Amino acid sequence: MLYLKLRQDYLLKGVVLGAVLLFCGLPVFRLAVEISTDISLGMQSSFIDTLSRNATWTAAIHSLITASCSTLLAIILGGAWSYAIALTDIRGKSLLVFCLMLPMMIPPQVTALSWVQLFGPSSVLLNTFNLAPPLGSPQPLYSESGIILLLGIQQAPLVFLSLRAYLRNLPREIVEAARCSGANPGHVWRHHILPLSTPGLIAGGGIAFVSSLGNFGIPAILGIPFSYYSLPTLIYQRLTDFGSNVLGSVATLAFLIGCIAAMAVTTQHLLLKNRDFRLNGISGQPLSFQLGCWRLPVEILLWTILVLILVLPLTALLASSLVPAFGVQLSPATISFSAYREVLFHQDATARAFTNSLSLATSCALLLLLITVPLAYFSQHRKQLWCKKLLVLVDLPFALPGVVLSIACILLFARPIPILQLSLYGTLGIILFAYLARFMAVSLKPVSASFAQLDPAMEEAAASCGASFSRRMREILLPMVSPAAGASVILVFLHACNELTVSALLWSAKHETLGILIFNLDDGGESVLAAAVSVLIICLIMLLMFLLDRKASDLPKGVIPWRD
Asked: Where in the chain is the domain with CATH 1.10.3720.10?
């Protein structure tokens, strides 16, 4: 009996280790092998040829400019939002945070499309109120500044979440001592709160930079129309050209993105090196500055920003989906649901994309749950060192730009799998593999937080009574972590449904995802149909976020990012 118990334990450990090495370790290892092999060929290699092209360094400069400037914008927007919500007595904080999270949950290509349809001479919403610029006027968002603006808005929630985590841990005693010494709120913020919370700003800025660097949807929709290429869109162009040595070339570009991301992470660590504060006191208590007569103006300002960055673009998107043709004024006489009928009942590609995305997102969420539950158990409940070290490998595919992971998967499955002679390239299988690698960290977070809160004494008592490992897991542990497991499924589903950066390089005919469908419709001039599909996706995401929010009281603290 003891042998069987040990066998179950070690078998599960082996499965978890194998899954993490397969999905997270193997693609990164394959990319490293490709780059090192290409470099060893010397001057004749595609590595040297790609790095010697002007287009490569132009795209790299564009990526650096857009990522750096959008990160600065995200720090300003997300930082101001976080300080206002975490430190003041404004009302409606939960709703404000929920609305601020929407830009992060909405696919970036949908964000870009909604803003494109808000501005310009063909804007349905502006034409309805006779506010549109004259026909022939340039689209203002087809520019470097337009890409920076939308990337900054998309990444602001990341800065907000990172900074709010630091503000939650500031002990009240620091603020109260400063107040008792006669310091006003502005002095307390400048000389106490801001210096202590800068690690949160730096950490959030680092995440925002890497995320902007690998973003494909926004630079593709706003940059390609005026031939403005960043590294992700240049990789997409190279893959669609099908030139000679294309894999070596795109691997080099992916390596260049990885180097820039690595330098950004290194810079972040250097900036945080001398800011490792250890604070004593009661943390987690809300800090609340009384705004007094300024509370209403601050609330009006926050809601106005939300209207400008969220409500207006989504309203323009909805208006564009309700007209028979893009540019027609919206009125009771012109309102039409033909776009929705077309995308839901007549277009085979739409039905295929919905089926593919929903099946990929569901399969990814459920398969990852089978991996992350035992992984969280061994790392948090058993406190096993080997498993904790394995978590670094889990975080790697999520930290890398998505385009780098895509190239690694292409290199890995460009040829049939040895022995099995099974080819995943050009199928949904390669997209699922990439999703499993990228979103394993997302799936692990809520389950790991739940296991960390469990008392090991319950399992130890069951083991002393002779309960097997599988029975303890099935009847004691799994029921207790089931709320977090449900949150894990929904979070992965949300991320996988709106994903574009990875699938943009991996899709093939009849294997489109929703992100690819929107990009292709807009690129082909079917803006009304693209708007209709985008509205349906937003409705689906908002419904899932609402259902997750309703279950907030049953989940561990910190699992749902928009809840306190």
From this structure: 1-44+337-564, 45-307
